[in-house]
Amino acid sequence: MDLNEARAQIRSVDLRMRDLFLQRMEAVRAVAEWKKQRGLPVEDRAQEERILSELSPAVEDDALRSFYLCFIRDVMDVSKQWQHHLLEGLRVAYSGVEGAFAQIAASRIFPDGPKVPYSSFEDAYAAVEKGNCDLAVLPIENSYAGEVGQVLDLMFSGSLHVNGVYDLPVTQNLLGLPEARAEMITTVISHPQALSQCQPYIRAHRYLTKSAPNTAMAAREVAEGKDPAVAAIASAETARLYGLKILDREINENRMNTTRFAVFSRVEYPFVNKREKSAFLLLFTVKDEVGGLAKAINLISAYNFNMRVLRSRPMRDLPWHYYFYAEVEGNDSSENGQRMLSALGGVCPMVKVAGRYTATETTLEDA
Length: 367
Known about the structure:
Elements: H1 3-38, H2 45-55, H3 62-88, E1 92-95, H4 101-109, E2 115-118, H5 121-129, E3 135-142, E4 146-147, H6 149-157, E5 161-169, E6 173-176, E7 187-190, H7 192-197, H8 199-205, E8 208-211, H9 215-225, E9 230-234, H10 236-242, E10 245-248, E11 258-265, E12 278-285, H11 292-302, E13 306-314, E14 322-329, H12 335-347, E15 350-358, E16 362-363
Parallel strand pairs: 1-2, 1-3, 5-16, 7-8, 7-9
Antiparallel strand pairs: 3-4, 3-11, 5-11, 6-9, 6-10, 12-14, 12-15, 13-14
Helix pairs in contact: 1-3, 11-12
């Protein structure tokens, strides 16, 4: 069998596997409904082991048998993820704890389905890459503190797509125990960024400060500490979550404080390209030569695309080398957009469209 014949055979098998995959997923849907009606969990390890023990002996080649078992386990994992999706709705990952601004944003973008907390941006992103969650909602920029570099780096090196960008106005409040009064407070706890945003208020009241990993954890610490002289700086939603009282509202210096959150998924959702006023996230590197960045910028402009944002970020594996993050108005999938990207690829070692969204971001309710 020559190369072309082998590839043709693989193609034929892949088409049959596709049809069989769809048939299997329909059967999985019936299993999910059966479990839903009976309140049974998705996981059934005993059944999985029975299937593996029944199927594997038919593969006589010892080496291939181990690969076959890996293949079947992967199919089972996909089937379980599909069952989770059918039974629970979209599983949305975020970084932080319940009550954090990321959880608030995730809940407002996706009101249905469980919100799954992770301890870091990397873990939340990886949860979607591995299929443990369907989507991740992660911050990419704050109007007060600037870009969220860790998330941009994940966008550069990772495999997920951005399918939406949303603005969450951030309002900080002074939260205390139910029995506390504003004049009793001597110490405030919050994330360093929130403490910085409220610094004039803190100075005016001569409060001592204590840092917390995020605003929600600060509220939880106050609730658990039971000290009426200690307050948290956090959202009104967090106050309700941890049973705290709002002692003073809107204490952040900049009332225009907003965080932009991006929605990451493994696949690009079809509706994104149908939006009339679109923008796309463009990542690229340039050659280490005079005018390298200028060539790239001039090319984007030459094809009548407007860059709303342009930032540089250091590359982790190459000291003193940088990649560039741009938010570009227009449709990269158009004929003109494809020509621009092709031309850009001629002068840039790496070009990547990380996602698309509406040019006018959707603004969520105040947090």
